[in-house]
## 1
Amino acid sequence: MSTAATAAERYGPKPRLTVPLSLRLALRELRGGFAGFYIFITCIALGATAIAAVGTLSAAIQHAISREGRVLLGGDVEASLVHRQATPEERAILGREGAVSEIATLRSMARLSDASGQALVRIKAVDDAYPLYGALQFEGGKTRADIQQPGAVAVERGLLEQLGLGLGDRFQLGNETVSIAAIIAKEPDRLAAGISLGPRILMSLETLERTGLAQPGSLIDWRYRVKDTGDGKLDKATLEAALPDTGFQIRDRHDPSPGISRSLRRLSDFLTLVGLTALLTGGIGVANSVSAFIERKRKVIAAYKALGASGSLITRSFLAQVLIVALLGILIGLTLGATLPFLAISFYGAGLPLQLDAGIYPAPLLLATAYGLLIALIFILWPLGRARQIRAGELLREEVDKGMRWPPLAFAAGSVVSAIVLALMAIFLSQQQQIAAIALAAIGATFAVFAALGYGFRALAGAIPRPRRPELALALGNIAGPAGLTRTVTLSLGAGLTLLTAIGLTNASMTNELKTQMPEHAPSHFFVGINKADFARFAKLIAKKAPGSELNSAPMLRGKIVALAGRPVSEIKPSEEAAWVLNGDRGLTFAERLPADSKIVEGKWWPPHYSGEPLVSFEAELARGLGLKIGDKVTFNVLGRNVTARIANFRTVDWTSLNINFVMIFSPNTLEAAPYNMLATLTWPESDPAGEAEVVRAVAAEFPTVTAVRVRDALETVTAMLGKIFTAIRVAGGLTLLSGVLVLAGALSTVRARRIYEAVILKTLGATRRRILFAHIAEYLILGLATAVFAAIAGTAVAYILLTQIIDISFTASPGALLQPAVLATIFMVAFGLFGTARVLSAKAAPYLRAE
Amino acid sequence: MAENIVELKDVHLRLQSRAGSVHILRGVDLSIPQGETVGIVGPSGSGKSTLLMIMTGLEKATGGSVRVAGHDFTALDEDGLARVRGQHIGIVFQSFHLVPTMTALENVALPLEFSGHADARERAANILATVGLSHRLDHFPAQLSGGEQQRVAIARALAPSPKLLFADEPTGNLDARNGEQIMDLLFDLHQCYGTTLVLVTHDQDLAVRCERIVRIDDGRIDRAQFELEGAA
């Protein structure tokens, strides 16, 4: 065998797995490790973690809700009524579907027998069949039998703390003195009840009867839970078909708490958008990273070309390299995103009402992967396009001008298409597409503003005459320079700071609205459940105990809209703002005259003593959201009867007055014959806590079935909940800033070599280290402050539009919310910058000055 | 005889590297009188650029004494050395080393601003006119040709009217025609301002234009210094 043949055998083509050459080149290049890509990987990982974690947590909760659906709902299906119990016929229909349990829920007041204290409570009266699913648990080994006795109740610990009571103690509930026979440890169907005021009291239906709280017209929800004893197919649709037009609100085990599910999806959607902002900010780090990478590889690329590689091979090889890096970032993000929520729950989740299953939820991980890849493509393709423009001739001669050039059209188009796909995905996967679209447009606009600011700021720094002080001239030179940090700083910090400013201002305005705006006009108490026959006596008591105060009242029933303009509710597609009107029961009232807070905007109010066709006045904006016009008919179910009224007028309502307001007000002849109760508000000319407490005590003593709700308590509960939601939003928003800081750190490390070189030249020209330090501080301060000021302006604009146009409350300027991000930006910028400067100043001159 | 503006006595430079200590300069003695032109020549790696770094205070000798423009460099800290450079020394590099974010005018004005001249820009503009670049004042380095960049670097080095001008392979990155023009410029300016010129080069043809050639090899001055009367 000849030598040539041996060599051919050794090096010639062999049958093996064919890995494309571009990928082989990519893998060879990556053998050296991921140095230079750490910021890239961290930026992608951070955004992917946020999106995967939010999605995983939300999916785990949804999964637990649907797994525990029966237990949370208390049955396979629940049919509930307000004001009235089911008729024997309706009970018979329910009974045909399976085992039925009857439960009544209502709000009331628990009072100490000596009238020294009272508390708003949530009563749940249950029959013997309760609970159909899950187990009711009491503290200290107590059982159901302990509350079976008439007058015996079980309470949540909160009530004991509130009223200073203990096991075995007695207190007043309506007309009855009840005794605490047990303390509730676990109520299986607690979550489905939603979030509401006051601790729970559990009792038998017989005890409820004895309290006298269940009167005609009382605001009681009667719930009928059915346990499927048949073929397991019993669901919402079955009961809706069996109980048409009866006013039942029906839920099934698949969605035991539509309100919670809806809120969860909305919060999850919103946090995903915030995560996407973090990912977008990180994208700038990716782009910088890829640009620096291509810059480092110029000679390699030129050498490849000199050796005969095609532009497309080089592009594919470098695209493969950066995609491998992106995938590594995504993988890290998915791992953290899929595990962090469960780690957090294992530390802090003991109090959760649901047992969440740790596990892999593929949907959010897929979503995070898709978003991560799209973001990577948007920001990779643009700088990668330049790799194609590098000429082999660069091996022999440095390109004199490496300035900004447009990448080839295909790369620019690829970036743009990726961005469009990302936006469409984010919009169509959101529950509230319009809001998602607006949010994305706002995010896009913010980035555009800060990109423009970067350009503008550079141009401005270049245009203004150089100051005499060389430090300032140097700082301005760096800001104006084409390879400076200006654009990266404005882009990377701008979006995060704008977001934090907007979140801070929105939070401050909403809290301010709740805390300070209301009490000036707002009533101190709502009184619910005043029997219409007792109302005159009630008003007299108030006039005696609270002279000078203002008592407003309105009759109130609850009912459910079943059809609008002849179309059943299920066929109506309301606007997002108006959808709540059709969810569940609404308060209904009737009035002879137009209430003080309202103004007719279309149509006419009915004349006094009107006795014709039933008429209704509808709140104007909601009517528009529901597609209604004057003359349309509204059919609602109240106390089991369907009643139809014609829309006579539209009116505006000032909801923020916190006075008694209703979406629908009927002409008196429509409802006055129904058994209703009165709702009243008490407004004091000036705050008088002692007087308020005295009135509540007097009302409780004389009208034991009337419930008093302190407005301030209700507002505090809402404020506390708002605070928690804003904390979650702030954490997510903080991620964007963290992403920005990472980008900044990456950019600073990219320019460090140039900075050292520059400092060395300056030293050869006689500059002291102090001068160089001052020049750097001046540059970072100018950049940090400029970005902070614009972020404050942009954040204020976003918050202002959000508050005044969407949430519809007044904007409050909060110096704290405004200054915090600005100070943060400046500190970050100067601190990070100076960290780099320390290394610049300590660098030795000689190695940088020797001829190459 | 003119006073010595550079006086090196038994100068050593040892640098630590991974492979151990490297002895780069091994006892260099060199005196340069005010107003002289000196060519320092030697093969690559002989230590000629290092010697320039020592004379400009950009590198600190590890042994011996270095006196330049009346200052003891071994006793000055980094900032003290920077001040001496600002007042007395101009340096021209092979790779120009202009500040990329500044225009030609700003680059030239910089050392004047560092030493507190109120008319820095006017003087810079005049010097740029002297080197034939009055039409390029507002251009950034990347917008200038190699020859033009080197002219800016020379203008910058001469701006504060230094007593000493060091040039390290000033034509190394230029073509023959541009290189010749730059050399003519350097020697013309030396004549005009009476500046001491120290030229580091591996090109014997350039060095012969100097009044004296100092040959360096393996960290030592190799041959006796000799005078080239009437050269240049």
## 2
Amino acid sequence: MNDVAIVGIGMHPFGRHEGVSGMEQGAIAVRAACRDAGIGWQDLQFAVGGSAAAGNPDTMVSMLGLTGLQFTNVMNGCATGGTALSTAYNTIASGLHDLGIAIGFDKHPRGAFASDRPVVPIREGDNDWYGGSGMAINPQFFAMKINRYMETHDISHRALARVAAKATRNGSMNPMAWRRNAFSEDEVLQSRMLAYPLTQYMFCSPGEGGVAMVLCRADQAHKYTNKPVYLRAAVMRSRRFGSFEVKASYLANEECVGPTVDASKAAFEQAGIGPEDVDVAQLQDTESGAEIMHMAENGFCADGEQEGMLERGETEIGGRLPVNTDGGCIANGEPIGASGLRQVHENVVQLRGDAGERQVPNDPKVAYTHVYGAPGISGVTILSR
Amino acid sequence: MEEVTLSTRGALWAWTVQGFPPKNPPYLGENDPEKFKPFGVGYVELPELKVEARLTEDEPAALKIGMEMELVVEPLFTDENGNEVVTFAFAPAPVD
């Protein structure tokens, strides 16, 4: 198995961009990543692209160059970016190719994630009782999961507000973020209640953006950059029976951990390190409760410790374990195909020391990303320099 | 595949209160913002499995994990022929 390095990164700003298609945002990110690596599109041996709503990624060749390269499309809901990266990683690790690119982009209208069908399909001819009775609403799942977690592990409403305020504060220092105004904790708590206990400002919104990264065999990285970042792990896991996931009209009584826990354990094993070795982490923050639960599910703390950690500022940029240093999904919005790669992009910027006013101090060396997608998919990467 | 009749009582396992009117389609209940009333949604742990359902209670202060709930039927909407259409829901079980 070859070691794999990230040698070029590029991004189109996240947010709303009238007149620029999602695919064009992806192409702009690709050109920026190639420039960063000092290569041309024609040098790439393969591409992996993911988008939920902005078109078939392999048709990007008409924008970028008809070189005939191997181009694989992937889709795993909100975890798509993670899949694009792990697929690209596997292509090089296996020895099939030496130089390729992972791409993610999307463009979602307002309200795009509002409602859905249940995972257990409604039979042909049945009325849609699930949506009809008002249960097919994504915010409800996130609210129920965090509400139960808060009651069980003594997490306060203020903790939810702290996470959202931190997200917008970090976003205000990120020129690529959508939301650039920081909210106070009280503003977060007083915003409209969407699904108890989650208020509007605690949620991410469907949005737009594009990210690309050039990967190569680690022993060739010096050809492209003097600041290579190495992929120590890139794993994907799906749900097992008994886990609590989105769009479930029923749940088994036998409980099981979610795919996040499985992906995290597998990634730490692949990298040969533990959570205590991580200097900066980007964790899925669909809403602020998700960031809190994912801190524990990814092994960074025990259930309930998040309350104290947030009070003490341990997940701030200057804290013991900076989390979501670029503002996360809350400040950047959620273009499904791109978010997983946005997280890796931020980690590369941090490890290179190029994060400007949001730079994690003390020369971070190990960075972690975690994505979660409906209806129960998770991807984790671990990077080091 | 066999049909199993589920129990009608169980403990509240998770809950929330839907705060904004769901879109129609697919929602069939009241979604006029002027008339919308928040409604409870949760999972009730029956002996057989946990079922997701509407809850008759919509006050966060009155909902607690572990509280005993029982199956009821509640009206959802009236169709164009004037028929009341009902759905299943769970209500706090009366304390013995």
## 3
Amino acid sequence: MAIAISVRQVAKRYGAVEALAGVDLTVQQGEFFGLLGPNGAGKTTLISALAGLVRPDRGHIEVMGCDVVDDYRNARRLLGVVPQELVFDPFFTVRETLRIQSGYYGIGANEDWIEEILANLDLLGKADTNMRALSGGMKRRVLVAQALVHRPPVIVLDEPTAGVDVELRRTLWQFIRRLNRDGHTIVLTTHYLEEAESLCGRIAMLRGGRVVALDSTANLLRRFSSHVLKFRLGPGPGLPAELLRRATQNEGAWSLIFDGCGDIESVLAQLRQAGCEVEDLEVGKPELEEVFIRVMRDAAEAAPQP
Amino acid sequence: MIGFKTLFYKEVLRFWKVGTQTVAAPILTALLYLLIFSHVLESHVRVYGSVAYTAFLIPGLVMMSVLQNAFANSSSSLIQSKVTGNIIFVLLPPISYREFFAAYVMASIVRGLVVGVGVLVATFWFTPMGFDNPLWIIAFAVIGGGVLGSLGVIAGIWADKFDQLAAFQNFLIMPLTFLSGVFYSVHSLPPFWQQVSRFNPVFYLIDGFRYGFFGVSDVSPWQSLAVACACLAVLTMLTLALLKRGYKLRS
């Protein structure tokens, strides 16, 4: 598999703030890659460096083998970026915006592809409307369309669903998933962890300008999160001592961490032997949110104190 | 090349779409100046011995409009794009800093020329005008538009807020253009102010431009041309250096 994005030892400092502190990342072609982290973790700075909007103090970034500084023309042609801010040029209609954006990438006649993007993003009805007259959701779609006019093999979406309604979020993801199936590499930053969990094959977590976790989504879930057995006890004997050590209680409900499905049976057997009456039994699945919180907490503890 | 052409086209389309504000308004302003000053001074002032004041004033107003609008075009386009954030659409594509410069400055020249021609046409019936040497007229209009268009790029990139740009315009561009001999021949000034005027590059732009109409001017048109070209060269190099560094555009 060829490499879509290669980030090597990239650092960027703004005055006293270390936005990126030596980031290393590799994204393979065809991946759906998630970039997660709290506000100020360096996600947007990293994306900006990738797009040539920010010049790193040191390190190198390549898009499909093209250095974003030395070979910026090719690197930028290979990259489509959907910015986080809802920006637009108020002078033009949707179609004009897309034609102009095509021209910036050196594409003179692009009508067929523009029509196709407009149709896919449900924008045909608004094609000749001025950007100013569009709703926020519609403007967001145009931003996605603008990032795609030059058919980039690598697409970066910086929090594309912030403040977007459920319907648009769904159509947007359907479209992005299709692009990914067609071979496009997708890099996504989002605050919605369930989105990242369902979409991304691999995830990097950033904190304080550093990569603090980088693995496949499945591995991250396995490593940092676990299945939880939740139940309440009816009247009768309490929790046996050996289970008590592993359990936590919250408003009368017990939570018990277990490793695999085989473990459930032994837990239940122990409860039965102790004569406990189990009510409201529930098995909780591992969640990316839990992984995220644990990784961030561990990183905070590991970080050198200022 | 398509990238440059598109950016140039977009910049022209941008001002054309708001033509009342970017073309009609400055033409009206120039007309008002002409009405007032020619009414007050026509019977009192003759310039270069034989030229009537209204005829003298018209080329000055035309050139002032060219210069001010060339500056306004690049500077206001850039500051708007920066403040609203849509400058990103120009920064993401593979457009080189040279193409960026050429597109913004050439669109500024076009805006200056459109307004200049507009002022000329609108003032045409005030007094018969001679076009002694049209090549000088065109050369100074284009070079002057380029000088102020470059300056507009610098101001637009430098300013973070609209009021900073307004300060640049009010405290630099306006005094330079108003005190450049648009409304008077510098020979009518006291010797000290004549000397001061010669340090104002805009004076040479106006004077050379006017030479194209009358074949007479305060200084030799060749000297004016040399100053104008030198200004354009220096500003072009400065602007290109800033753009290459990504000054305030790519952090």
## 4
Amino acid sequence: MSFLPHFSHLYIEEAAREYPLTSELIERFPRATVITIRNYKEVFNRPRQRWDHQRQSLKVILAVRKDAFLYPGSSFVPNFDNDRFFYTTPIINCIYGCEYCYLQGMFPTANMVVFVNSDDFLCAARAQLAGGPAYLCISYDTDLLALEDLFHYSEPWIDFAHRNPSITIELRTKSSNFRAISDLKAPPNFILAWTISPDDIVTRFEHRTPTLEARCRSIRQAQAHGWRVRLCFDPLLMVRDWQQSYAAMIEQVTTLVDMSAVSDISIGVFRINGTYLRNMQERNLSSRLLTHPFVVENGSACYAESDRRELQAFVVDRLRRYVPQDKICPVPQG
Amino acid sequence: MKRATVCPMRPIVAITALMSEAAPLIEKWRLKPARNAPLLERFQTFAADGRYVLVSGIGKLKSATATSVITATLGLEADPLLVNIGVAGASQNHAGRGELFVVNKVRDVATNIRFYPDILVRHLARESALDTYDHPVDTPPRDPVLVDMEASGFMHAATNLLCPSSVLLLKVVSDYCTSERLIPADVSSLIEDRLDLIDTVIASWHTELKTMPLPDSDEVASLERLSITARFSQSQRLELQRLLVAFKAGGGTLSDILVLPSEHEPHSKYARRALFNKILGQLRGVGLP
């Protein structure tokens, strides 16, 4: 025997039953066992859940979000000079298993919640636009593009961007699944933001994610289809031979991607909420990445300042050989 | 430190309401009466080679009590796999007599509290939700659920103590909730007929859902001795304990790295700090990850 495949079970809120998307998803997972629940939190928030066990067989919880459709942007992520910065979570949790990911410290479970009232999220975003132009990140607590074949959640936001020019939407991803949206017209106010890491970091710490080359191929396709592309060298990690790894990565990326067509490049050294880090350390005891002696500054755990500076300066310096300085946006630390 | 020691083998604990449900398991696993823990004497308990069977008696409170007692006796750090095994009622439309189910949802009918064990491992049984009543049920349920009198008590206790992937509920359909009464031999026979499948499901759960290799009591004690000898501060001790857990989870053996001959005892603050950093480095692994 072995682990059940991902999505072997669908936990469905009673209130989510009436949504057409729920019926679609039940049809899309015909072999899944359906379990009815009252509220997604009674499964999602169970105490003492084991991430390492659950990661082997992820379950999907279909739920209705009742409020908090948009959140103000976090201080841990850059706002790219947008004052009205929000993020939204149409899906919670991710199919990938990046060892450094804050989701492991933020949520008590590895299982995914898919909110089926997607129109309510779009309405909330539309209402926010009454207050002026807004910048909205839609793929922070998940990877929407990686899940596009299953849930089709990027598509309505792309359409929303077409209809609402005063919003700028960022979809952050590590996937190589551009194909899933390649037949859609690229809105000028929609940014596909790829997180890029050296191949040895992908292999060792970004479990189940596409290779660097696969991501670059997807980026190239997106550029060919006229999409705005952002590269995110974030988080930079202090690992063995990091200089060689990041130098090789930049060589590879600049060979495979049209750097002149990249909108901007975000660079951030690993930093995380201190409480999340403690949770992650408890949940992933064997991770050497997480046992690093991080310093905690203002509740944020990060590398020592000299390491941060060295890491960031190295990558910025290398990148400057290929792209103008004004396209490089280092993420402020702390 | 939350989990300090671990048994070499993760215990498997089956909790049944009736002796007639337990008997086939006791025979298959060749268990003997266990009398080495005073609290366990309150229940009929059988054990051998890391496997336990407890007969709790009928009802959710008895099941909860037995579950708590055995878990406390083994210690949370043993992280046992707790299995509630027994017979259950069902409607004729939902299940056939003698059919084995893995339970994926338990509702306590009296309180409407629901419990969800993690179903992560492949198995060959059907799955079902189950309702736990405070009294015998003599009307077949209208919904496609099983009915029993223990599961919610078992889940209440088990999930208060352990993770939801450390619990498993296996029920064999015994009746269609009529006034017909089962005799013990029938109950044993129903379990007996599904015993191979029951054993396979338990073995799969036990094999796949591994516990982390954690420091044993000797290793914890050695680190503590070293910390006292070297006069490490409380925060230094806690940091070493935390890293020891990570070190073990990563497959390390403390005796391979930890040597403190008495002549190397640090005699200055500087030497103490240097020793602390040296051990820290050894536990973290040399260099960057």
